[in-house]
Amino acid sequence: MTQPAEQLAADGATIVRGFLSPEDAASLRRTVSDIYAFMSSCESISHRLLAFHFKLWHGVWLRPLPAFLRKARPDLAQRYEQSLGLIEAQVERLFGTGWRFFPKRSYFRQHVGMVQKVPWHIDADAASIYRVAGAAINVWMPLDTVGADLPSLDYVPRSHAVMRTVPMLTGEEKYRDDAFVDGVGTPATPQLDVGDALVFDQYTLHRTQQTGSRKTIRTACEFRFVRHAAPTLQGLNGWLRYNWNVLFSPQGYVAERAKGFLGLRQKGSSTA
Predict the structure, then answer these.
(1) Contact at 8 Å (CB) between 195 and 146?
(2) Cα–Cα distance between 182 and 90 in angstroms, integer?
(3) 137-160 pLDDT, tens digit each
(4) 268 and 184 share a domain?
């Protein structure tokens, strides 16, 4: 059988059944559920950005979460950190040493109804992770059974190789459409149970599976890891392509300055 690290390198994604044991997965599920319940009960959340993410899209940002819980609910802080330790150990066991948990881009995400579906994107530009390290992965763990009634993730195997050669998107709109994805490859949709994980590269195309209803509620964990020991040529390549796009794309800096210059000339001509 292909090992997870080998499949991740070849396909840009790998499904790890039983990433956590049934007992550990159930404990993580209870902990996340209790965190959501506690934060929902708070009249105000002291950390501004933690409150912002929670109110806007039912997201829990993991960077400030431990400090917040240590003050407000130390029992929940301890349970969360125990689960995180198990996940870090599994990443090292399955994918090798050098991977470091990256809470700045890690979240609990509660998908509610049909509104919070995320279109096709890659983490490298949508989350600007390429600036941090040449190698980054997302350990995506649903806390409900997904792929049938509740939405899993769609992803495109081997798209990570293609997307490393494509200019990164700039501005607020960093999503790709179906026509673009059809030219890259055929999507796959894993069915995952609680405790399973889909682990994928920062350049792998993925989106929320297009299923569910207005009453759909699905909670998942996005634990991102980075490896600074990886060669930095990929990071430099991404930085160059991103900034080239910022400057010279049809919506880039040069094009906008040219439009402004032409607008001023036309205005000057009309008033002459």
Answers:
(1) no
(2) 34
(3) 999 999 999 998 899 999 999 999
(4) no
